[in-house]
Amino acid sequence: MYRISSDTMGFLLGALLLVQPFVAHAQPVQTISIAEYRPHVTSDQPTMRGMIKFAQIVKRKSNGRLIVTVSQDTIPGSPEDQIKALQAGGIGRPDMMLLVTPALRHLVPEFEIMDLPFVVHGDREAHELLDGQFGQTLLSRLNGHGLTGLAWWENGFRQITTSGIPFVSAHDLTNRPVRVIPEPAFIETFKALGANVVGIPYPKMFESLKNGQVEAEDNFDSQILAGHLYDVQSAISVTNHSYSAIAVVANSSVWQKLSVRDQRVLRSAAVEAGRYERDLIREEAMTDRLELARHGMRIYKISPKEIAKMAAMTESVRRQFFHNYDPEIVDIYRHQIAMLSTTQ
Fold it and tell me: Distance between CA 244 and CA 310 in Å, rounded?
């Protein structure tokens, strides 16, 4: 697959950030800023390339009336701090952000459904679920929280990395210290898999793996590579046990000041750029794994039998969490999954 060089990407990003186009007849230009949830995202990351594509689509569809500026940095602090800043808006804060479901579940608990183990099985199921009634209902629930949801992007499926004994069967994490995102869905999932769970924020994860505090973790392919986890982990096991969804979210005050025409442009551009970003994630998953192998990591494809065991071991987690959610959203999820299962 062709990858854009860092020099070329830097030029494109600089052009998007700095060049203000001439708009005929002095038509007013509206500038919209967008940022990722992670700090210092490199220009070749799928989400960054997706935001650049989003800016290009918006400029084209609005005939230069709307200009999107793409930030390579983010709002500092915890996910909750980021959400509060986006809600408040103002100088130095983006008008739009890419936010992951573990952050958004603090506003709408049902976003957490996407973080549960084995709630989707494959890209098609994930995309149709989120682009359909279930995903649109979740986004609509943000309206009462000073935010407007536009579209769904992704980080892709999460895999398990280990040092020492690799993870090749469902019980291979039993009594082993495993780093997880310090959120309930991830904690309970790995408890159900028998691990000694340690909740550690991402900025502290690398050091905890390096010093042996934990010996395994789970992440999506691009983050395993970008985070240089090959320096502290020896194997990656392809489990696809959890899907990392990203919502494109806008500050509602900014959104409501836009014309209906401009809202349509931004929403359709977010959907179109999301398809592009998802394609990048899928294309790069295999190349990322080849690169991880080049750095010395062993790649294990877990058998369907062991995946089925993992799903059975975590059934109680899904049942427990579903019990706490709005029954309307749970019913929409179950109905869509049932419909998708009959068409596969």
Answer: 18
pLDDT computed for residue 328 by the predictor: 97
Q: Is 87 helix (H, G, I), strand (E, B) or coil?
A: helix
* Whole-number Å distance between alpha carbons of 325 and 55: 36
CA distance 158 to 217: 10
Q: Which domains does the chain have, with CATH numbers?
A: 30-343 (3.40.190.170)
Q: Please check whether residue 51 is in contact with residue 98, taking contact to mean a CB–CB distance below 8 angstroms.
A: yes
Element (H, E) at 16: helix 6-18
Using CA atoms, how far apart are residues 258 and 264, in angstroms rounded to an integer? 10
CA atoms within 13 A on the CB side of 310: 29
**216 has pLDDT over 50:** yes
**Closest Cα partner for 237 from 318, 303, 186, 312?**
303
The Cα–Cα gap between 325 and 196 comes to 27
pLDDT at 299 over 90: yes
pLDDT of 325 strictly over 70: yes
Give the separation between CA 148 and CA 46, rounded to whole angstroms.
23
Which residue pairs from 315-321 have beta carbons closer than 8 angstroms and sit at least 24 positions apart in sequence?
316/192, 317/116, 317/117, 317/185, 317/188, 317/189, 317/192, 318/116, 318/117, 318/118, 318/119, 320/188, 321/112, 321/113, 321/116, 321/184, 321/185, 321/188
